[in-house]
Amino acid sequence: MHSLSLLAPNEHAVDTEYTLSHISSSSVDDHPLDSGDVLFRPDLLDLASTSPAEDDKDDDDEEIVQDGTATTPMEHDDTTPAPTRPVTSWPAQTLSKAIVMARLNNEDTSWVHSELSDWDAYIYHPLPNNTHRTTKHAPTIANSRPHDPLQLPRKGRETLAYLTYITQYYDTLPDIMTFLHPHRDGYPRAWHTDAANYSNVASLRSLRLDYVQERGYVNLRCNPAVGCAPPEIQLNRSIQDPDRSTERVFPEAWNELFGAVPFPEVVGAACCAQFAVSRERVWERSWDEYERYRQWVLKTELSDDIAGRVMEYLWHIIFGMEAVDCPNMGECYCNVYGRGCPSRVEATRVIRR
Question: Which of 40, 52, 54, 278 is the least crowded, having the fewest Cβ atoms under 10 Å away?
Fold first, then answer.
């Protein structure tokens, strides 16, 4: 592990135009976990595998779904039983945890504090007079101390909030971080959330924190239908589709972000930029690297949604996974949420991928 002496927290430069709302889990009463909220509903799998109808998709002020469509189901070996959970190595009650999200001013995120009160919450939102949505020039940089209000331009969708949190709190990160969208539940708004009623509350209540520690990075979506089946970025296509705007700009964006590191021809991960990561995995990259990514989001000439979508298919790579990170869906549900696991506890050790 590298040294953590890059910069003290109050020396990190932050240039933003979102206001940060932070509530610590120690400041509110604990919320009892209701096992009924985390029961697996197989009937949701087919629904969750399909994006909402064109008329139901979010408008420009809301989340943009992938460009291109993924309709071919991924082939999995369903005859092999999914692994059972190992003995937990990290007592969940002792882990520090944080939720990071970006919301619009008209989005209600009070459910985070009331229903996930055992998590610290860092919620960024834009000021009403935001004027930096698409400009390639970053606003004036100002130093900021932890817990001060922050401001972020609306650039790169949720990406800028995610990276700002990491760069601001890099030296004092919690054990586990989850990066979430602001919608609590419901179809079609939360169609990509893998839980009963598409609920982020149910998703986090059933999240296996020991597996996050074990693997380092976990995509909160197990269903491969968008992003994995087939892989979203395929630079080796014989005929390039001009409508695949993310794929078209991907090589140039990769070079701007990672320099001389060769870019992969195929990149795949389940959509849609909701994931959990351990502190140790974040620390495998330096503060300077995350700040470089953040500056790219601020200054790129790519539109808000395209810049965000490029980063959507880079998070798993940034956090140490292979370019195609598409676990078997059954194994993923078992490992990440404890769903559908074989009853024999001695069956198989958790698969680390």
Answer: 54
